[in-house]
């Protein structure tokens, strides 16, 4: 059984990561998954976590942290009547199905393959943010099934492989089909619930009994990181939000896109070198 002194460096590193993640999440207005995964990956590496499980652990732990925050956010948005409940009902199978498929892929994929997947998706999202135009539109209302079901499944797959709540992807989908950004953001909180809960279960199953995991881990979820990061990110996010008010929406979008490009480049470099 590890002593307090054994886990002290682990705790200190995770607290520092939580401060940074909270500030960045508040600054860019994005649920912290895309920020937490690269931070976890590097912190777990500094703490000597085996490379074979490091990326898996980062993804699973990120999704575990999203569970309470997405549930809380969904409840608040639903109370205000801003959520598209019909869309969520139509995705109650599609999105979790996609997330479970993602965890199955992750269970069989190597750390290198998961880093490449994360980097490619991050780069695509960054390019979408850089070249995005408010005038872009594909229709006046959301498409019918089976296209809508397939989009929900795809959002679940891509989000599960990135350890994120799917907000950026759902916001893009809804606004391209004539919905307001406010309704898209509110509905994304519900999408986060549909992703994070099955993702949590799937990453526990996928990593069950794997060697090389750090203390306090169940499968690919590190509960010490979860317990430390939730209060720290919730506390520091408002400070990042204060910084955000000094910038325009376009500046924030461009800033987050550059952050994703930097992370993608870093992951590409870690694979090549």
From TrEMBL:
Its main location: membrane. Pfam families: TauE. It is found in: Cell membrane; Membrane. The chain crosses the membrane at residues 7-28, 34-50, 57-75, 87-107, 114-131, 151-173, 185-208, 220-240, 252-272. Keywords: Cell membrane, Membrane, Transmembrane, Transmembrane helix. InterPro entries: TM_pro_TauE-like. It is a multi-pass membrane protein. It comes from the Bacteria. One of its GO terms (cellular component) is plasma membrane. Belongs to the 4-toluene sulfonate uptake permease (TSUP) (TC 2.A.102) family. This is Probable membrane transporter protein. It comes from Aliirhizobium smilacinae. The lineage of its organism: Bacteria, Pseudomonadati, Pseudomonadota, Alphaproteobacteria, Hyphomicrobiales.
């Amino acid at each position: 059984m590890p002593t307090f002194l054994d886990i002290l460096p682990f705790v200190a590193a995770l607290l520092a990561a939580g401060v940074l993640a909270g500030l960045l999440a508040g600054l860019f207005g994005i649920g912290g998954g895309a920020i937490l995964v690269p931070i976890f990956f590097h912190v777990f590496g500094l703490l000597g976590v085996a490379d074979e499980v490091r990326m898996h652990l980062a993804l699973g732990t990120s999704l575990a942290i999203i569970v309470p925050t997405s549930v809380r956010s969904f409840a608040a948005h639903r109370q205000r009547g801003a959520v598209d409940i019909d869309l969520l009902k139509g995705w109650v199978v599609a999105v979790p199905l996609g997330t479970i498929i993602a965890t199955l892929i992750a269970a069989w994929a190597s750390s290198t393959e998961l880093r490449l997947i994360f980097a490619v998706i991050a780069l695509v999202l960054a390019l979408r943010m850089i070249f995005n135009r408010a005038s872009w539109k594909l229709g006046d209302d959301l498409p019918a099934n089976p296209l809508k079901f397939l989009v929900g499944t795809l959002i679940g797959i891509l989000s599960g492989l990135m350890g994120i709540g799917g907000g950026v992807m759902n916001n893009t989908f809804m606004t391209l089909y004539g919905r307001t950004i406010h309704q898209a953001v509110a509905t994304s909180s519900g999408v986060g619930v549909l992703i994070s809960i099955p993702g949590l279960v799937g990453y526990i199953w996928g990593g069950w009994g794997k060697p090389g995991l750090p203390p306090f881990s169940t499968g690919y979820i590190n509960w010490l990181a979860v317990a430390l990061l939730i209060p720290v990110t919730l506390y520091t996010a408002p400070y990042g939000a204060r910084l955000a008010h000094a910038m325009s929406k376009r500046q924030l979008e461009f800033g987050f896109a550059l952050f994703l490009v930097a992370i993608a480049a870093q992951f590409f470099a870690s694979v090549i070198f």
